């Protein structure tokens, strides 16, 4: 069972296990244990404990967006008309149904949300904007910024 809002203490072996697994989730337990300097069973126990604690949420395959012809990244600030709990929930639920939205963050300050959208082209983004984004519940204002170049891309957390 995943422990919510509990800070879990990690030692140097746990952190090294996580570093290795962030680089390559397909690493075998034998390779992982050898890399971190533990025998197979203690290494396996640590991985299983971190999975049970929710530190390791899932193992995924990362795709190359450009090779899939998804080379346009757009960052979108959204401001809502209302800020009551029901309005926020309606917006957040509606965003879940738009596949092109790969990230959605609530933000502080003047804007309510920051979305990251990945599409094939500017034309595809324009269509998405007109048909889906402006139709999201209670949207007051949308401001889009196109990424020109990705300088850094990592999914690894700084542990």
The class by helix and strand makeup works out as alpha+beta
Rg from C-alpha positions?
20 Å
* Poorly predicted parts: none
Shape label: elongated
* Tally of DSSP helical segments: 5
- The average pLDDT score comes to 93
What is the CATH C level class of the largest domain, in words? Alpha Beta
CATH architecture type of the largest domain: 2-Layer Sandwich
How many structurally independent domains?
Answer: 2
Number of strands: 4
Intertermini distance: 23 Å
**What's the helical proportion of residues?**
25-40%
Protein name: Lrp/AsnC family transcriptional regulator
GO cellular component, one term: cytosol
GO biological process, one term: response to amino acid
GO molecular function, one term: sequence-specific DNA binding
Structure notes:
The longest helix is centred in the first third of the chain and has 13 residues, at 40-52. A hairpin with a 6-residue loop joins strand 2 and strand 3 (113-119). The mean pLDDT is 93. The chain has five helices and four strands. It has a four-stranded antiparallel sheet. By secondary structure, the protein is an alpha+beta fold. It is elongated. GO terms for molecular function: sequence-specific DNA binding.
What is shown here, in short?
This protein is of the alpha+beta class. It is built from five helices and four strands. A four-stranded antiparallel beta sheet has the order 2-3-1-4.
């Amino acid at each position: 069972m995943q422990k919510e809002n509990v800070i879990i203490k990690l030692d140097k072996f746990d952190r090294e296990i996580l570093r290795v697994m962030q680089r390559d989730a397909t690493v075998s337990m034998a390779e992982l244990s050898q890399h971190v300097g533990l025998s197979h069973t203690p290494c396996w126990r640590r991985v299983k404990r971190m999975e049970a604690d929710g530190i390791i949420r899932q193992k995924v395959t990362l795709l190359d967006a450009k090779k899939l012809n998804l080379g346009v990244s757009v960052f979108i600030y959204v401001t809502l008309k209302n800020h009551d709990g029901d309005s926020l929930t309606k917006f957040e639920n509606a965003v879940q149904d738009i596949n092109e939205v790969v990230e959605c963050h609530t933000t502080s300050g003047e804007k309510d949300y920051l979305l990251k959208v990945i599409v094939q082209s500017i034309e595809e983004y324009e269509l998405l904007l007109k048909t889906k984004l402006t139709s999201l519940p209670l949207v007051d204002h949308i401001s889009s910024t196109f990424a020109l170049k990705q300088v850094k891309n990592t999914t690894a957390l700084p542990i």
